[in-house]
Amino acid sequence: MPSEDHRDPRLPPAERATLLLREMTLDEKCHQLVSVMPWTLVRADGSDSDEAERWLRNPPGHVAQLITDSPVKLAELVGAIQRQAVRRTRLGIPVLFHQEALSGFLAGGHMSFPTGTGLAASWSPELVEEMTVLVRRQMIRTGVRHALSPVMDVALDPRWGRVHETYGEDPYLCAALGFAFTRGLQGDDLRRGVLATGKHFLGYALPVGGVNTSAYEGGMRQTRDLFAYPFEAAIQLAGLRSVMNSYADVDGIPVGASREVL
């Protein structure tokens, strides 16, 4: 039987995490890196899916694409999955729920805002931060605490199909708005904030031929001075807590497997 010490709320979080890691098997640790869709675990009415029992033996670390037609239904779905994770798994590790939030919280019943280039046209970090403060409040009330935004790519090739998600071609403007987006979303205290995710790390916006996910062939000076600049600002000045790696290759190595880049 596993020790229950990691569940003791009187202990500091770092100590609880250390105790939990000692109890986890290799399979359980690996599955914390796995993401599943909500219907893998529950049906629309909140009852178990056909696959639920199998997944709960080695539960996933996070759940994605929680799209419903109302905030109430979304909160109920999040609650049903979280109860599975906490009450019916060996160690009771809560699930981290994540969703897109680039132009507002991507879930039914929430406000929509301009996409990245529209926000950039405002030249106003203050407005972007005000927007993400509201997005944070909307996400927290449903239990979704991880946003897959902002896009911090510097867009130099108009052929690339995701230019509209970015803040344009100026690395300084991208850094200023990425910082503001991150600060508004995470807040001053992450216990009451939503994790921001800077993407796509690194050089994703300059693929060969402008073809999405094709290789990036920029040199290291351009990579560090231009493409890394918005991420550096968000990490150092706003405490950005997560990044999404690029889907492309850098020097023939997929970024997700590159120690040099990550």
Q: Which descriptors would you attach to this protein?
A:
TIM Barrel, globular, about 260 residues, about 35% helix, 2 domains, alpha/beta, four-stranded parallel β-sheet, about 10% strand
Instruction: Supply the number of helical segments.
Output: 9
Largest sheet: 4 strands, parallel
Query: Biggest sheet, strands in spatial order?
Result: 1-2-3-4
Give the N-terminus to C-terminus distance in angstroms: 37 Å
What's the β-strand tally?
8
How many structural domains does the protein architecture include?
Answer: 2
Describe this structure in words.
The chain has 262 residues and is an alpha/beta fold. The protein has two domains: 99 residues, no CATH class; 153 residues, TIM Barrel, CATH 3.20.20.300. 37% of the residues lie in helices and 9% in strands. The protein contains nine helices and eight strands. Strands 1-2-3-4 form a four-stranded parallel β-sheet, with no helix packed on it. Strands 5-6 form a two-stranded parallel ribbon. Strands 7-8 form a two-stranded antiparallel ribbon. Helix 3 links the parallel strand 1 and strand 2. Helix 6 packs parallel to helix 7 and helix 7 packs parallel to helix 9. The longest helix is centred in the first third of the chain and has 17 residues. It is globular, with a radius of gyration of 19 Å. The two termini are 37 Å apart.
